[in-house]
Amino acid sequence: MLIGFENIKSKLQDSYQQNRLHHAIMLCGKNGIGKASFAKEFALEILQAGKNTHHPDLLLIEREEDKKEISVAKIREIAKFFNQTSAISKNKFIIINSADELNRSSANALLKILEEPNNNNFLILISHSISKSLPTICSRCQIIKINDLNFDNFSKIIKEKIPDISLQQIKILSEICDNSVAKAINYGQDLSWIYEALLSSLNEKIIDENLIKKLSDKKFDFNNFIEIVDFFFLRFIKYLYGKIDFFIFEEKEVFQNLQNKFNVDKIFQIKDEATSGLMKATSLNLDKKLAVIIIFNLLQCPIDFQDFI
What we know:
By secondary structure, the chain is of the alpha/beta class. It is 53% helix and 8% strand. The chain has helices spanning 6-17, 35-46, 72-83, 104-114, 135-138, 151-161, 167-176, 181-204, 209-216, 222-240, 251-259, 264-283, 288-298; strands spanning 24-28, 58-61, 92-97, 121-127, 142-145. A five-stranded parallel beta sheet has the order 2-3-4-1-5, with helices on both faces.
């Protein structure tokens, strides 16, 4: 049983046993807390799949790797699947991961399916942001809000995934990844390294050469750096309000130095300018080294441009 989903599973099981399980369920919550894994686990249990994680009466709908959205063709697979006779179980389940990635055509196609529910056919939609789904789709689903993982639950799951991890490392991942297990497992090490390198660069007023190399790598997802910069400013703002419980890497030295230069209002302004500059660098495919210089200049940590020629 996935940690943090015990009560929800119990309620859904009770609904199923009383023949009151809604034909369409939308699980809403933060990305990376295990909603899709729980949906699959629940469906397989109802289907009595045992240890078999692949069941002919369970269909998973996801966008293709090279696509940004779930196509209408993918949604049309649902109608075909529902019209087929069940292979083993009396029930059939479809999991859509995620509803946020439906385009207008695929969303309208799904709406038609939701308007004509069939007995023993169940749809589970995963949503990281319910505002991205059509209201007409939401209105036809039972909305179940999944609470964010607290630190204790996050820690238990991470320890299961990474047995030799230290408590300090877990605390760092918890902060940087906002208790998102998926993010911590897939990107945590990378995000932690970037944040440490950024803080060190600001503290020493010399940009880490390895950080520049990483950001300049065509395979590197620059959005991760933008996320870390946003995280840095949010942490600094918390520090200015006295809301920091513990410091990560060289935060204390960096924050103390910056506190002497900027008040909260100015930091909010700098944060907006930094984010805008980084997004522009991404959209226009500008030199990522210049994007880093933007951050340094805004924080009044000038560097020698000759270092990058």
